[in-house]
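ok so I'm stuck.
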Amino acid sequence: MEDIPQSSESMKDILDIENIVLFLWPKVLLFVFGILALLLSIFLIIKIFQFLKNRKKKILSLSPLEQSLKRLSKIGINLLINSPQPPLKLRGGKGELCHSVYFELSEILREYLDRAYSFPAMEKSTSEIKELFITNKPIALSNEIIGELVSFFEKADQIKFAGQPSDNEGIKVDMEKIKNIIICLDGLLKKDISKHS
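replied:
not stuck anymore, here's the structure
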């Protein structure tokens, strides 16, 4: 065995190691956590898109009756109607709330007729709807129901376009009227479908 040199002068044949690469744990951990964060964000984005896609399918899968009743309940007017002070904000003598509520109620009823009966109510005026009901009266609809539909559309037009005022009780009554008309129409539609099956 060779002797180990004791002085540094005798160790001249050993070279210093240059450019030592140190393994830097903080940089590696930062890189790993960055990749994990990227994967987690991609996963969350995919889950959000799946949630939105499923929500749209659920909304589209509602029957015309369910969709109309859901929209009626979402109007949010019940809180305002039950308040002790009148909720109408007057602007030039017109109730903004009345206008928007009757616009929404009219749209809900028109959309229901369009979806449930394939009746083109969305793109028709009230007078055109009245003419269509008179000339092409569906068998299941009685004259009384047609009269209620037409009278509601005429009242809604008066409030929406002519600025005719309506009180809170009138709004409440008309909301219940629309709800009852839609439920009645849906019952008649189901009877008509079961007869033809």
